[in-house]
Amino acid sequence: MIALLVDDEKHVRSALRMLIKWEEHGISQIFEAENGEEAIEVIRREKPQIIITDMMMPVKGGVELLQWLQTNDPSAKSIVISGHDDFSLVRHTIQYGGTDYILKPIDPDQVNEALAKAVASWNKEEHERSRSVERNIEMNRIKPVYWDRQLSGLLDEPAQNPVAVRDLQADWGLPAGTGSCRIAILSMVTMERKLKNKFGRNTDLLFFSLINICNEFLHRRSRGAAFRYWSSNEILLLVWGEPDKVPALLGDINEGILTALHSRLDFGLSRAHAFPDGLPAAYREARDALRQRNLLSRGGWIHEAVRPEGLQPRRLRFSDFEEAIRTAIRSGSAEEISSAVQAWFDGVRSLSAITLEQIEQWRREADTMRGRWIEDFFPDGPEELLAEVRSESGSGQTIVPLNEQGTLSLADWQQELTHSFVQLSKKLLKRQHREKNVIYDIAKYLQTHYHEEISLQDIAGRFFLSREYISRKFKQEFGTNLSDYLGAIRIDKAKLLMMNPNLRISQVSEMVGYSDEKYFSKVFKKVTGCSPNEYRKANQPIM
């Protein structure tokens, strides 16, 4: 803690330094001033918690100092030490928050007791201040969540949330009897790339920043409230009063966003609807205003719920290009993929208008097709691999790539889509290469362990693959099933061993992995067309 001694007599200040047990009271720094004016300068600079002052001083006295403290630093604790037994001075001390009035000559016990009381009082109040600050911080954290919940509920079920209406009146200045309002949606889909890159994956911070900017304008004018709509994870603005001036208000908000974040955003705006019952309809209108605007032209940033005549985009289906793109991905050729995607964008570029609604439809088609491809390309892939492929393939929230003019950038979109498909193709080739290597590893294992008792279950356990997967892939790669492949290896080895006349048939049978001689003979005859003995006689080497 810090203390300040204020007295025009130096020997009094020196006496106080010696008589007070500063360390016991937790005071580590002590400053001095000769009068009230000098004391105010020290207080402003050093922020002492305890001020011990005389009352009768030149330039500016103790009463004036106490009066200044009450206005400018009310948390500081003051103790008066005076040589005047004057009731008016005592009254002023009490009036301006002094904790004690001690008469000179100074009694050490009395001044130490007064200081202990002042320190305890300051510590108690500081604890309360800290708790109050913590409560305010917590409330500031909770308030946005509370309002998001309240206003989302009001939008979803207007008739069931009268508390939200009362809270809007109390905290946001909603005039009693408000009969209409407009809903605006701040588009996160068509945000400029530089703003998206600035916040990266921290969308919560982006939402927090944008909502704060919107509410700064709305709350200041008592015109509305911005909040995060839980049902769709969008930023909505509920605006009341002077419906014709709402577009201009949104324009001011957009300029505020530009100043703070160096970027503008699109707003979809509904017409005026009854409050609160018309909120759901207003939301749908604002959403349609965004989804149905022509992304090929920049007609402004505020899009009202009036669909321009003739904006009926020609239907173009992504699914019409599915087979060409799928085949290109399977080919593993980046050039073929680029060519297939180019054919799709040739069709897109022939359109006179493209809306967000149309892009969302294409995205749904593309996601559906991509899902089918992944199931086809990786039928036996572990769930971790499938999740990785889906993530790398670009499924997720729609973000429309815009150019510097704020219109749809087909070049950027084409590049992103091509990259997505090329990455999927690379993942497929990598998987196929690894699968092929595994199957050949299995074949090599059979060739060196043919003499052991081997089952399909043993192979599956050794190579951490399912039996069904091994059977299918082995047949695809070698044109025969695993058991017949192993049987052919054993019979070939048996043929060589039977060239040795000193080995009995039973010994040969065991040496190639058959514990049952009769079964071995049966398999041998099925493969070669003759029994082991017949084969040996026909192929006896000439000595």
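[next item in queue]
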Amino acid sequence: MSWLPRDKDFFSYLALAAIIVYPIYLTSYRLFFSPLSKIPGPWLTRISGILEGKALKEQRRSKWVGELFAENPDAVAVRTSPNSVSFNHPDAVKAIYGHGKGVEGFGKSSWYDAFSTTGESLFSTRSKKRHAMKRRMVAHGFSAQTLHLFEPVVDQMMEKFMLRMDAFARSQEPFDIYFWFELFTIDLMGELALGNNFGAIEAGKPARYSTLVEQSQRFGNFSGILPFGKSNVKIMSWVPLPKIQKLWEARLEYLDFAKQALEKRFQEDRKQVTPNGKARQDIMQRFIEARDPETGYKMDFAELRAETSSLMVAGASTGSVTMSWMTYYLCKNPEVTSRIIKDLEYMFPENTNGARPVSYTKLQKLHLLENAEIECLRLHPPIGYAMPRDTPPQGAVICGHYIPGGVAVGVPAAIIGRNGSVYNNPDNWDPDRWTDETADLATMKTCFLGFGFGSRQCLGRNVANQFVIKMIATLLLRYEICLEDPGLVLGTKEFTIQKPDQIYNVILKPRVS
């Protein structure tokens, strides 16, 4: 029987055959037999994530997904990679992100692991149990009562900002207001998260930290498109491309900076007191004091560091870009602006020139201004692409499509926010749509993902609303604002967040009361 292969040779041949046959089988399955093969999209997305990676590299990931839906106008879902599907329908929002027993199986995908730094943050943790515990611990730090305690810090930073704006108003020289919004938000979040600002407003130039935040998040996005979970970051750090290495070095520097800043915050904690002797009330103080009421658990330094890093990204980046879009649209829509100013002057008759801080408690009653913010976030959500969730092991039916288990599914905020079946004239900026009683307001609110949806909705929403609304209200009371180029049409360019695709200048004039 010498003609039979020896055991060692047999298993070698078998292994070689498997190496050759398995890729052929997998490719054939993905192309023709997988339930996902029935979902429209470029044929290459069935077997590779190359197209999605290319769109990410070109800073147009959300726009690319929008183009896929435009090419398939009757589709409620498109395939963006072998193991990911994006939906564009209200029912998909509730199915994937909603509350209740029916969505318990949809967990955060491995994409989030790329954003876990020194520990899990509220944003990056994939465990529903740990997320619920963290949310219980820190929810009081974002309550209405706490916002009242934060307001003097916001007012202090706004005073510094307005001194700069006064100089521009006196000269009436055109300037890039988005640039100054970024300086304001990085200084404000430094105060709220670390107990000390970066001096960006006074210096008139960005803090190194703000650049590192953007680069680190971009590294995380590149890592997140790989299918290897927590190994992604290490794998990406080995890629010998100069651009990737630059982003990796920025991530390391960013984490080290956060560590040093937080250590300093702890060292100076006893000095951070108010005149009445109580501890300084900022977001980090609330995190430090936070204790889970059910287990007694407190966050350690690594977790606090992770939360700090996440907080700086969420607050500084999204706040500045939202204020920029609001300024642009209010300049382009003077009728809406005049109505808001009229309401502000009625609400603050003693402060028609914006010389004193405006109360956020009162501003919350000015619905047109808040709707102007919401409308900007509908059209230009900071995170435009889908926040991915994994389908449960048994799979799930979403909008009539059976999706196997372990597939990353999601609804891109930038796409659903312009869904013509949900929003009338979806590409028009119209704050009044949010008070239109003839519209389906419930569905419109379901499809508004500017702050996320369900239990994972951004916990810092109220903090962001506070300083964004206060800033725009104060600017409108204090100055006449106009675009240097009245015919300017801004588009969107996607970094980690969606930003205007070009620099634009405004001109300020002191408002005559």
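[queue empty]
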